[in-house]
Amino acid sequence: MNSQSDDLDSDRSNEYKLVKMILQPVRERWRRGIRDFAKQAQLDHQFHHKKKVIRSALYGDMGFDEDEMRLVESFYLQRMRHISQMGLLHLVYPDARHSRFEHMLGVLHSLKDLLGAAQAGHFKDGLSEVRRKELRFAALLHDIGHGPFSHTTETLLELTGIDAILHLSADNEEEGKTKHHERRCRDMLLDLDVQLENLGILSYGLSDYFRHQGLEPSVVAALVTSARSHKPLNLLSGAFDVDKVDYFRRDAFFTGTRGGGVDTDAIRRGMRLVGNSDALAIGFDKRMVVHLLHAMYGRIQVYAVTAFHPVVRTASALLLVAGDLALRALPADAAALILVNLELMNDRELLTVLDTAARECEGADGALLQRVLQRIEMRRLPKRLVTLSPQEFESVLGEAIPTLSQLGGRGRLPPLVYCRVSTIADGKYSQYLSEDSTPDDLVIVEMTPADAWRSAGAEPSAKSELDSLCDILLCDESPGRPISLADWLDANSGPDSAKLIAESLQAYRRATWRGLVLVPATLKHRLAELGLVQQFLKDLGRCLKQPENCLPYVRSRGSKRVLDEVSRIVLDWRLRLESQDQNRAARSARPKAKVRSKKKPPSPRKGKAARKRR
User: Burial, 531: exposed, middle or buried (Cβ in 10 Å; 0-12, 13-18, 19+)?
Assistant: First the structure.
């Protein structure tokens, strides 16, 4: 079956043809990988994988069974080798080049350790083999929905509004807290992904593989996404689960930050399984209370020096700027083609598409895109002009808050906005730039969640921290009902102890994560030398009041054509998928005709009579 996106219209622009030519191998790689996986699943009874041992720098030898190795060697996991775990963190910590692939193996290994070391006394019912296999498959596949550079491009999809178009569940209030990659993982497991029509296939083959293994695909998908609304299922989405324990330890190891001094080995040893087979949860030995509280503070500290490191945030912001400029510079049909295929790309393929857009597009946006990509490649990033606390952000840039709130959408502010130097006070500062800079250089204003909530009028509270304390379960060595960490603190340290700790955690978080104002290095030095920093911030606030000077792309001029084009493509995909489902249901409901077996005539005997006739 051929996809509509593969049809070449003669009136398309040259940019559209070029982008389509680059994306064609991406889709073909997906088709080939899906076909190979389906063929492998059909020949499952003839060819068996051997058990394998994979050596890990964190865990030593990790053993994997035959059914796990079929998924490990599939296209879905091998693709994750080319998607970085922490985005552009290697620009700060050169060793931090680990990918999603080894993280997913580590999560499965941690889960198997937990299942193997769990004490049977904490279960009302034993774990069946089917339930264990569901948990193992969910742990192994929980990140297959990630796109290039992991969470960075998810932000681009949210800012452009494509997330709600590609995944209808993004508009669901109950599932709004579910992350983009979790929703897409669920859609892939259940064959609900609209990318099926883009790829010209009927199924990813994962649901059929699960049924062949005696599993229900919806149960595996619920373990990946529904854990937030079903708190007993917190093995992959809890306050402390096998996913967080693995990436917390892995990121600390490859960045050399030592995890804030947190003893992750002790936490892993103190993990227990509580509940029954239908309502599993992770509990901890009561002797782990000190380690757990230390880990909650250590996690904030590690995030501050890794994902929220100023250089990492600058590079991530610059990558989003590059994506924005590419969508602006390209025609609407070419930009829509990139957006609807963004989930299929890996890190290298996304950079190739952006580089092509920079070389082929003319005008100011194309030239600026070339400079932005060169800055990322050569690590010539914008520098911090000033670091603003929430109070300082409100006092200095407070007049721009209404516009920023309008740009955010869905009741929250974007993680960054940016404008050009030439738009500030009619190019007043262009005279202070050096010869190798231009007045169109970018000024990036980035806000942390706490800054955004405060500036939008929603003061962050300690409720989320208190919810985390309530979600962590403690259990005794003897069988008994687990209690939450919050209740244990109130019972052993006095009333409101959990509330005080939650407020302390929230204050520590706000003190660690601050908003940034990033400007080109040449402009930073000149402004500091001439003492114009405060005046520059005031002019920046006036500039940000004007929506046409503020980006993200979805609220800027000219973006409606691209969104309409994406909506048209995705609507056509959905209509095709619905017709396929209806035809499939009609074929299954049609009574099957009985096929009469025809008896073959007996073969002539090869004897003396036959030889005589010859």
Answer: exposed
